[in-house]
Write a structure and sequence with these properties.
The complex is a heterodimer of chains A (about 300) and B (about 260).
Chain A lengths: L3 H27 L7 H17 L4 H24 L5 H20 L3 E3 L19 H23 L1 H11 L1 H6 L4 H27 L1 E3 L6 H15 L5 H24 L10 H30 L1
Antiparallel strand pairs in A: 1-2
Helix pairs in contact in A: 1-5, 1-8, 1-9, 1-10, 2-3, 2-4, 2-8, 3-4, 3-8, 5-6, 5-10, 6-8, 9-10, 9-11, 10-11
Chain B lengths: L1 E10 L7 E11 L4 E5 L6 H9 L6 E6 L2 E2 L5 H4 L3 E4 L13 H9 L16 H9 L18 H12 L6 E5 L7 H17 L4 E4 L3 H6 L3 E6 L2 E7 H4 L4 H12 L6 H5 L1
Parallel strand pairs in B: 3-8, 3-9, 6-7, 7-8
Antiparallel strand pairs in B: 1-2, 1-4, 4-5, 9-10
The chains are: A mainly alpha (about 300), B alpha/beta (about 260).
Chain lengths: ~300, ~260
């Protein structure tokens, strides 16, 4: 089974990907805007935070700057779509590709090590907790604050206007909602969350790397869809909790699959396992009802 | 008061499918009037309504609402003065949101939206009051998703939402056409009741001449993007569908060939 290190590690990264899943919930579910910018805004957040941290900036300020950078990236994608009328998926791919260059420019090299730098985690090690427990505790706190803020926002007048924009844009306009502005705000917020996740990921892993964004969108979607399969998202709060639960379950499933020697999987199989898990998460909720129907027929 | 002056709008200009929808059309609607608009398919009724709402921008002409020129304004910037009910019962509400969330969206129509809670407790009494006036028992279902309601119920709520905050004009775009006859009658009765009680200025597009004469204070007929006749007050009293047909033929020297207009 899982070692303690693998267990804490899975929860730690699960919590970070939970933030990514929040972002993807905002774009894919609330705004119905399939946004692939995240593959670029995740390493963007990491790059901005890493560069500022090695320059001696306070790590929390550096993380805040990563959020702003992520928001700017999201705003570019949304403006390409809203103002220049480029198809949303394509607009996000354009920003994602551009960000690869931007990230290299920001970092000045393909990767930056943060192992000896002061990060948001450093002060917490003096609390007497084990090396694995510290990031879990800190990220649980970050996750809780983000969840509550995001939940309150979705329940606010502006948040409700954003939900209406995604669900029924024509009705939203008739109610006086500037739907274009809502898309820009929502996609920016979404990528701000992803930028924060990237910054925290770089600090907990001890490095920022220009390729660390590859597949983040799939992991985020896997968490979102998996979470929805476990907790039906009847309300905003349930949907947000589903994101976190999905992300942690996903990391646990990956850790289990890679640690179970009898299956024979290795680290290089990670993407294959992800694809299989996403497929299962999409297909399983449907089969649950058809299995029930099968037994109902048999019992007649 | 709404003044539409010399509106011209051509779809697909410069293409083989060029289609003039409004041709130098003018109409003034006074405060408190309830105008019914009829016309056959392609007469320009819906285009005229969409032009007033801002869904389409006219090629030329001007639209002035209560002294403000809104000709070039997009839909969301006109929403403070223009309320609207769509033909599709599913279009006017959000099915993923609850009933009270939908009403809370409507209560802020055309106003700025902040970060305070959208569904405020002080709204609840007003929501319950107006919902109970529908007689559908919806006041007990404020927390239900809109998608659980039938088309007729959703259209009734749309109507309520459109009248929750004051507007300069209420636009009704064949809003009973997609409902079954019984529900259509209910929604139409509700419409006249709300318009009378709140003394709203309204413009209702309808496909049925009978309906156009049965409700409202004034009837306008459109044909090929222009007003063919416009009757109100004494001239309109006691008129029947056949009188309208005569009027139309006298004006145009044409016979009406659109069956749905006669049968509706």
């Amino acid at each position: 089974m899982l070692s303690e290190i693998a267990l804490y590690g899975a929860i730690e990264t699960g919590l970070i990907y939970g933030l990514v899943a929040f972002g993807i919930y905002l774009s894919f579910r609330v705004l119905q805007f399939p946004d692939l910018t995240v593959d670029g805004s995740f390493p963007l957040g990491a790059a901005v935070a890493a560069v500022l941290i090695i320059d001696g900036v306070n790590p929390w300020l550096a993380t805040g700057a990563a959020v702003l950078a992520g928001m700017a990236a999201g705003a570019v994608t949304a403006l390409l779509n809203v103002k220049l009328k480029i198809l949303n998926l394509l607009a996000s791919i354009l920003t994602m590709i551009a960000l690869y260059s931007v990230n290299l420019r920001i970092m000045g090299r393909p990767n930056i090590a943060l192992l000896s730098e002061e990060t948001v985690l450093t002060p917490w090690y003096s609390l007497g907790l084990s090396y694995q427990q510290v990031p879990v505790l800190l990220f649980v706190l970050v996750m809780l604050v983000s969840l509550i803020l995001l939940w309150r926002f979705m329940k606010s007048e502006t948040g409700l206007a954003m939900r209406a924009t995604g669900a029924n844009p024509r009705m939203a306009r008739a109610q006086g909602i500037a739907t274009g502005g809502m898309v820009v705000l929502g996609v920016a917020l979404s990528n701000g969350l992803v930028g924060m996740a990237g910054a925290l990921f770089a600090q907990s892993q001890g490095a920022a790397d220009v390729t660390m964004g590859v597949g983040v969108i799939v992991i985020g979607l896997a968490s979102l869809i998996g979470g929805e399969a476990v907790i039906s998202p009847r309300s905003v709060l349930r949907a947000l909790i589903a994101c976190v639960v999905g992300a942690i379950l996903y990391r646990l499933a990956i850790a289990f699959a890679l640690n179970a020697d009898f299956i024979g999987l290795k680290a290089q199989d990670l993407n294959l396992v992800t694809a299989v898990l996403v497929t299962l998460a999409i297909v399983l909720p449907g089969t649950k009802t058809s299995i029930r129907a099968y037994f109902a027929r048999r019992n007649q | 008061m709404i003044t539409a002056k010399n509106l011209t709008l051509t779809f697909g200009q410069g293409t083989p499918l060029e289609n003039p929808a409004l041709r130098d059309m003018s109409l003034t609607v006074n405060q408190g009037e309830f105008v019914t608009v009829i016309g056959s398919n392609g007469a320009g009724k819906s285009t005229f309504l969409n032009a007033l709402a801002g869904e389409v921008l006219v090629d030329s002409g001007s639209i002035v609402v209560d002294g403000q020129d809104v000709t070039r304004l997009p839909t969301h910037k006109r929403a403070a003065s223009v309320a609207r009910v769509f033909q599709d019962p599913l279009a006017g509400t959000c099915e993923d949101l609850t009933i009270d969330e939908n009403l809370s969206l409507a209560i802020k129509r055309g106003q700025s939206r902040g970060l305070t809670t959208a569904v405020k407790t002080r709204y609840h009494a007003q929501f319950r009051d107006s919902l109970s006036s529908l007689g559908l028992g919806l006041e007990e279902r404020l927390g239900d998703k809109m998608g659980l309601l039938s088309g007729g119920q959703r259209q009734a709520v749309s109507l309520l939402m459109a009248s929750l905050t004051p507007s300069s004009i209420l636009l009704l775009d064949e809003h009973t056409a997609a409902l079954d006859p019984k529900t259509a009658r209910f929604v139409l009765e509700l419409t006249t009741r709300i318009i009378e009680q709140q003394r709203l200025t309204a413009l209702m597009v309808t496909h049925s001449m009978k309906q156009a004469l049965a409700v409202g204070t004034r009837t306008v007929m459109l044909h090929q993007g222009q007003v063919v006749f416009d009757i109100a007050g004494k001239d309109r009293e006691g008129l029947e569908v056949k009188d309208l047909l005569e009027l139309f033929e006298k004006q145009r020297g044409l016979e009406i060939s659109d069956d749905s207009l006669l049968l509706g």
